[in-house]
Specification:
This protein is an all-beta fold and 597 residues long. It has three helices and 38 strands.
Length: 597
């Protein structure tokens, strides 16, 4: 394990980690949740929540937003083909619904790409739900790990010693001990799990020990080097204070039991675990100011979002304002999302935020944010305008109308056909059929972004987009090794899918990273690529999508231009590395120089 000199970060109790068989993440604040409070709840009167109001520059009125519709582009070259059965991948996320309309049944289902055996093929970890409380008639299934054996996926869960049988929600992949082997963090209802890759083809559960136990409901999580000390820290999103074993009784005006809504359940704070570099972590969210009002977190990304060459933490909250945590000179964070224009929509209202993806839609060199939302709301594109902050530009780019009737979860922002224009994939699926006519299953969507306008190309992107699913997490990876991103998509209660990218492609360049002063996978690397008169910027950010984890690789689409490229790499350590004259259509592995100042 890599030994590092740690910066002082204040005095808090250390959490000792060692490999044992049980884990419940620990916090100072103990809340009621599954396994933590056995008291039953009385029926709750639904409060009427006032919308969060904020001054948003250049906000467009609702009717104007509706009129700016995404165009249909039938000439798109993007094609995806579902190949899961053909390559041996068989997995279904079971949400355990038995008619109780539990809030917890709606949210689970994620996956994460990793190369656990370092054979160069990308493997896939899938979380499992199952029964919240198994009984004599049900057996809780474990999460599953599928090894990629030259393009075929083989279930090796038992062989690698993974036995994760909690009610799982999502997964985040990161090499927390810098040993070169990907580790797995799983969010659950009733206690989260960290699985350390032993480097011998097996995993061992790694436990956080401390005082009161966190036994609540976590959703997404993100590995990122927040303190820039060379190892990965962990941000964990927590959703609401809801115990599925003793659920709140929520009913409509007619007295029918319904699935509880976010504003009917108390929020709970998120957690931040600082990696101390010796296999132990320390929970520091309160001390670092990583707290916000109305925390109901479902998604998170960690990236340089304000151009200060430091990591910021952006949190997607359900039905309450989103957070943007920015650190000051001494490492204390403040939520500036309202001030920066990325907390609420163009009308000043908080939305039901789920998934997040990051890209640069207008090619201004700044990272923009795309968030998925509930039906009746639009998926929001926050344009990043530097010193002017963010702005909801969804209406301006024609991205409103196409998403109003959907409930979006996982999302991936990449140039899938490598034509030089970015594309957005969205997994859709409702959370409740309301016991009557509401359709749970919805078709996924694919947009391409050209000349700063959204174009819906779903209909011609493949048969998968003409079907309906209860979509949840998704994650991209080049699982067939041909230089473009493919997709894994998790559906509730129906088979997950592997979408092989068979697009007509342009030129491209792909990059993997090996950190030396920085964390091993290069999490947090920012790359600027220059080719002819084009400049492209990407970052290997932490977190993203919904409850899922993508392959840590950057792929640039270059279109018809075959000219050699120059790249500038800004490592998390602060090292700047410049490489010139790189030929197109290849994968390069960039190693951080040890002798750089």
């Amino acid at each position: 394990m890599k030994e590092l000199t740690k910066k002082p970060f204040g005095r808090t109790g250390a959490i000792t980690a060692r490999g044992v068989a049980v884990i419940c993440l620990s916090v100072v604040l103990q809340i009621s949740g599954i396994g933590c409070d056995s008291r039953s709840s009385q029926p709750l009167v639904v409060p009427t929540a006032a919308p969060v109001q904020a001054k948003v520059s250049a906000a467009l009125p609702w009717e104007a937003l509706r009129g700016l519709e995404s165009s249909k582009r039938t000439e798109s070259r993007i094609r995806f083909v579902g190949v899961a059965p053909d390559v041996g991948f068989e997995f279904t996320y079971l949400n355990g619904a038995v008619g109780q309309r539990l809030m917890s049944e709606a949210t689970g289902g994620g996956c994460g790409w990793l190369d656990f055996d370092r054979d160069g093929n990308w493997d896939l970890y899938c979380v499992q739900g199952g029964a919240v409380e198994p009984n004599g008639n049900s057996i809780q299934e474990s999460d599953r790990l599928f090894r990629n054996v030259d393009g075929r996926f083989v279930d090796v869960t038992e062989e690698v010693c993974v036995d994760e049988r909690r009610y799982s929600q999502g997964v985040s992949i990161g090499d927390f001990d810098n040993d070169g082997f990907d580790d797995v963090f799983v969010t659950n209802i009733g206690g989260n799990s960290l699985w350390r890759n032993q480097g011998d083809g097996t995993f061992r559960q790694w436990t956080f020990d401390s005082e009161p136990l966190w036994c609540g409901w976590s959703s997404s999580s993100a590995w990122a080097d927040i303190d820039r000390d060379g190892d990965l820290d962990l941000y964990v999103c927590n959703y609401v204070n809801f115990d599925p074993l003793n659920p709140i009784d929520c009913r409509d005006a007619a007295g029918n039991r319904i699935q509880c809504q976010p504003n009917q359940v108390l929020p709970v704070p998120d957690h931040f675990f600082r990696n101390l570099g010796d296999g132990t972590f320390r929970e520091e969210a309160d001390r670092l100011g990583l707290r916000g009002d109305g925390n109901r977190a479902l998604g998170v990304v960690v990236a340089d979002l304000v151009g200060d060459e430091q990591p910021e933490i952006y949190v997607a909250n359900d039905a309450t304002a989103n957070f943007l945590f920015v650190a000051d000179a001494i490492g204390h964070f403040e939520d500036v999302a309202l001030r920066q224009g990325c907390a609420v929509d163009a009308n000043g209202r908080a939305q039901a935020s789920m998934g997040i993806s990051v890209g640069d839609y207008d090619r201004n060199g700044r990272l923009d944010l795309y968030l998925t939302h509930f039906e009746g709301e639009w998926n929001t594109l926050y344009g990043n305008f530097g010193d002017e902050g963010f702005r909801d530009v969804t209406g301006e780019v024609g991205g409103v109308e196409a998403t109003l009737s959907r409930v979006g979860f996982g999302t991936a922002w990449q140039d899938f056909d490598q034509d030089g224009s970015d594309d957005l994939f969205v997994a859709n699926g409702h959370i409740d059929d309301l016991g009557r006519s509401q359709v749970l299953a919805m078709s996924p969507q694919l947009f391409t972004i050209s000349h700063e306008r959204f174009h819906d190309v779903s209909e011609n992107a493949g048969a998968y987009f003409r079907q309906v699913f209860v979509g949840r997490g998704c994650a991209e990876a080049d699982f067939d090794g041909d230089g473009d991103f493919d997709l894994a998509v998790i559906h509730q209660n129906s088979a997950a899918e592997l979408l092989e990218n068979r697009s007509e492609r342009g030129h491209w360049l792909a990059f993997d990273f090996v950190g030396r002063k920085s964390n091993r996978r290069g999490n947090g690397v920012r790359m600027t690529l220059r080719q002819s008169n084009t400049t492209l910027v990407q970052e290997l950010y932490g977190g993203g999508s919904y409850c899922s984890s993508r392959q840590p690789r950057l792929i640039f689409g270059l279109g018809d231009d075959a000219a050699a490229c120059d790249v500038e790499v800004r490592w998390p350590s602060g090292v700047i590395q410049v490489l010139s004259g790189i030929s197109v259509d290849q994968l390069q592995t960039i190693r951080e120089p040890l002798n750089a100042p």
